[in-house]
Specification:
Layout lengths: L1 H7 L11 H17 L5 E10 L4 E13 L3 E3 L1 H11 L2 H21 L5 E5 L2 H5 L3 H12 L6 E6 H6 L1 H14 L2 E7 L3 H9 L4 E4 L1 H5 L5 H16 L3 E5 L4 H10 L3 E3 L9 H24 L2
Parallel strand pairs: 2-4, 4-5, 5-6, 6-7, 7-8, 8-9
Antiparallel strand pairs: 1-2, 1-9, 2-3
Bound molecules: ligand C2E and magnesium ion (3 copies).
One magnesium ion (MG) binds next to β6.
Organism: Geopseudomonas guangdongensis
Protein name: Response regulator receiver modulated diguanylate cyclase/phosphodiesterase
Length: 293
């Protein structure tokens, strides 16, 4: 059988030029094997989120990394859809939730206090057991739900807006915070933005990318930010890579930034060092300011 033949193939074999399907199959086998290996090929990295009003790191976003011994690092947009299709995402999703919660606990024990943002995939969002899985993850790790922020994408939220509203309400009743990820702007989405129970809106990188050059992108970011502000929501601009982009976002009133300019996604120990170095400085500055006449 073709599948058996593929399974026996070394994974480093050059991609067959003929079709993407074979590569997908290869990834599929490698993913199944990786899950049997008890998640050893997976790890989380954490990207800091900085609050513009006081330059403090207020949170991190947990991002999954899959490193196969032969294929190497496979980007999440490449393998998450495959796991969704295969129905494997819930197992990985639960591992991500539990790992992120345990990491948060470990940081808290070290005096590092952060909000932990965790991405939920579309299938995970639809899983009826998710509320229980979430509750177990925070309980077992010994963290409070209010320190966890669940990210769902705008497109997933819009698939069934009424169902989304109910789902988000129940998570908020459990104490979790909610962010809407990759927020762009469809006219229909603005109406729902007002109705979804949210804490944070993450402005999609696409709008940040051209914010310096494009007056229309600036206008969109401004409109979303003004609305978020009036609703008491935090705004996070994603993918901030240059100081000029940050300056524009700051002037518009976006509350937080996340991007390579401030900090790339990093391993937990690296993030702790980054946090202590950065927050140490801002704390010293804060103390100096208080002592000044
Ligand atoms: P996302 O949730 O919107 O995550 C932000 C992505 O933007 C991350 O890519 C991050 O590394 C990247 N990024 C951050 N700052 C910059 C920047 O300044 N410039 C550029 N060019 N990129 C930046 P990553 O880690 O490759 O993840 C891509 C997507 O995969 C995520 O988009 C999310 O949709 C999904 N994903 C990642 N980790 C997880 C996870 O643990 N669970 C689920 N369900 N999905 C995940
Ligand atoms: Mg995200
Ligand atoms: Mg995003
Ligand atoms: Mg994005």
């Amino acid at each position: 059988r073709q599948l058996a033949r593929l399974q026996g193939m070394p994974l480093s074999v050059a991609r067959p030029a003929s079709s993407d399907t074979v590569t997908e199959l290869k990834l599929e086998f490698a993913l199944r094997a990786a899950l049997e290996e008890d998640f050893r090929q997976f790890h989380l990295v954490y990207q800091p989120q900085m609050q513009l009003s006081d330059n403090r790191i207020v949170g991190v976003e947990a991002l999954i990394r899959w490193e196969h011994p032969e294929i190497g690092l496979v980007p999440p947009p490449r393998f998450i859809p495959i796991m969704e299709e295969l129905g494997l995402i819930n197992a990985l999703g639960e591992w991500i939730l539990r790992s992120a919660c345990r990491q948060l606990r470990a940081w808290q024990d070290a005096g590092i206090f952060l909000q932990m943002s965790i991405n939920l995939s579309p299938r995970q969002f639809q899983d009826s057991r998710l509320s229980e899985i979430l509750a177990a993850a925070v309980r077992d790790a010994g963290v409070q739900p209010r320190h966890i922020k669940l990210e769902i994408t705008e497109s997933v939220a819009m698939q069934d807006p009424q169902g989304t509203i109910e789902q988000l309400r129940s998570w908020r009743a459990q104490g979790f915070q909610i962010a809407i990820d990759d927020f762009g702007i469809g006219y229909s989405s603005l109406e729902y933005l007002l109705r979804f129970p949210l804490d944070t809106i993450k402005i999609d990188r696409a709008f940040v990318k051209d914010i310096v050059a494009s007056p229309s992108d600036r206008a969109i970011v401004r409109a979303v930010t003004v609305m978020a502000q009036s609703m008491g929501l935090a705004t996070v601009a994603e993918g901030v890579e240059t100081q000029r982009q940050q300056d524009y976002l700051d002037a518009i009133g976006v509350t937080q930034i996340q991007g390579y300019l401030f900090g790339k996604p990093m391993r937990a120990d690296e993030l702790a060092r980054f946090y202590l170095a950065h927050q140490g400085q801002t704390t010293e500055a804060g103390v100096a300011a208080q002592l000044a006449p």
